[in-house]
Amino acid sequence: MSSDAHMADSAATHPVTDALPSMGTPSPRPDEDIYGGFTRFELELEFVQALANPYYLNHLASQKLLQDSCFVEYLNYLQYFNKPEYIRYLSYPGPTLKALELLQQEKFRQDILSPEVVNRLAEETVLASVNMR
What we know:
Blueprint (H helix, E strand, L loop, with lengths): L2 H10 L21 E2 L2 E2 H11 L3 H9 L6 H9 L6 H4 L5 H10 L3 H6 L3 H18 L1
Antiparallel strand pairs: 1-2
Helix pairs in contact: 3-8
């Protein structure tokens, strides 16, 4: 199966439906696979929120994951978190979605290896959170 077909198939069978609960994470469907006690959506939610941490992005880059085309495709797939029905599950939507947006750019995926870029992004994240209060 091609990666495009796999991505389309996985998006079509995503566990979150139109009948989302108002709070918390969605309940698993009866036919949904569970991975280590968690649904796919819960795992994706935890991962995408970790992307708001510039030091974690630097770690991913240092492990060369941001150069892996399959991983980059997965980051593109996670763009569904920009939709209003998914944003509400994000604890820190601003930094999370900004990181997801930046990760779509090849130049940023290279630049995040720089300690200066990491520190600047960390400072901007802190300032943004202070200004939100």
